[in-house]
Write a structure and sequence with these properties.
Pfam families: 7tm_1 (PF00001). The chain is mostly helical and about 325 residues long. Helices cover about 75% and strands about 0% of the residues. It has 13 helices and no strands. The N and C termini lie far apart (about 60 Å).
């Protein structure tokens, strides 16, 4: 009886908060819906080419990692309708909340993990092509992919035990325990460490390309733009909401309720921004390959085919 009464009060407080910020949360919901539509269109068409045209399982190492990257983004996008609905309604079943959060952190973690592995593979291919033992290990892409999914599935279990994000902003703060601590460590580790790896690999790749490229300035600029764009997109999509999460954790118990609500609203907005990664991954990683780009345009955008310029067969940083 008491629990039911507490839930009613929580839902009432949450509804009041949403009513006070109705326009903001409708905007958040619209952004998520737009990202869902555009992201699914792009990722589904890309994965269609991987499966039916490129037959990625018979292709080179990078294609298997790219397929898993796009698959993770698709699985993340599938949960966005629930997120868009939650931005407008307070009532939410706890089980649905936890399942949605589990899928969100599993697939976002997988997206970041495969993005990082791709960068490491390209780093060794460009900067240390002579280290065949490392490259041989990285070429075990099916085994590495399975390992990543299994490991992330285990590490994401704490998200099912307790909600990572409050299902509504009026819920009580969590008490620090082993499950919560492990969850936060996994969350921050899977963002900040890959970012440092990306920055390091990108700097080394750019330096190496500058040394190798003698006369082809256009190709060098394109490769440098691609490498830099990957770091930029990662920084914009993931770092702001991770930093806001750290601020949120630090402020719990130290600020007034109004300030907590403000931080949560900012955090919700930055989560919307983080989903943009699902839309940009296929562009940066798949369509950056001249072969894949021509195949994609010929399949889905044939009217642009005559505008595509022939490119050099060398594609060191792109493929």
């Amino acid at each position: 009886m008491d629990n039911s009464s507490n839930l009613d009060i929580s839902d009432k407080n949450c509804q009041e908060n949403i009513d006070q910020n109705r326009a903001l949360y409708i905007f958040y919901s619209s952004v998520v819906a737009l990202e869902l539509i555009l992201g699914l269109l792009l990722n589904v068409t890309v994965i269609h080419l991987f499966v039916f045209k490129l037959k990625f399982w018979k292709s080179k190492t990078i294609d298997i990692f790219l397929f898993n990257l796009v698959l993770a983004d698709i699985l993340l996008l599938i949960g966005l309708p629930v997120k868009a609905y939650n931005f407008q309604q307070c009532s939410e079943h706890k089980v649905v909340c936890k399942v949605q959060l589990f899928l969100q952190f599993l697939n976002r973690g997988a997206s970041i993990a495969f993005l990082t592995v791709i960068s490491i593979y390209r780093y060794y291919s460009v900067v240390h092509p002579g280290k065949r033992r490392v490259l041989r290990i990285l070429r075990m892409s099916p085994q590495i992919s399975v390992l990543i999914w299994v490991l992330l599935g285990i590490l994401t279990i704490p998200a099912m035990l307790q909600s990572f994000i409050r299902c509504n902003i009026s819920e009580k703060d969590e008490e620090l325990n082993t499950s919560v601590l492990l969850r936060e460590i996994v969350f921050f580790t899977q963002i900040f460490i890959p970012f440092l790896v990306l920055v390091y690999c990108s700097i080394r790749i750019i330096r190496r390309l500058k040394q190798k490229s003698v006369g082809d300035k256009t190709k060098l600029r394109r490769a440098m733009f691609l490498v830099t764009s990957v770091v930029f997109v990662f920084a914009v999509c993931f770092l702001p909401y991770a930093i806001t999460r750290a601020v949120q954790l630090y402020n719990d118990g130290h600020v007034m309720q109004e300030e907590k609500v403000t931080v949560v609203k900012l955090y919700d907005g930055l989560i919307c921004l983080s989903y943009l990664n699902c839309l940009l991954d296929p562009i940066l990683y798949c369509l950056s390959s001249s072969k894949f780009k021509k195949l994609y345009i010929s399949m889905y955008l044939p009217f642009l085919l005559e505008k595509v310029q022939p490119e050099s067969p060398e594609d060191t940083a792109d493929d």
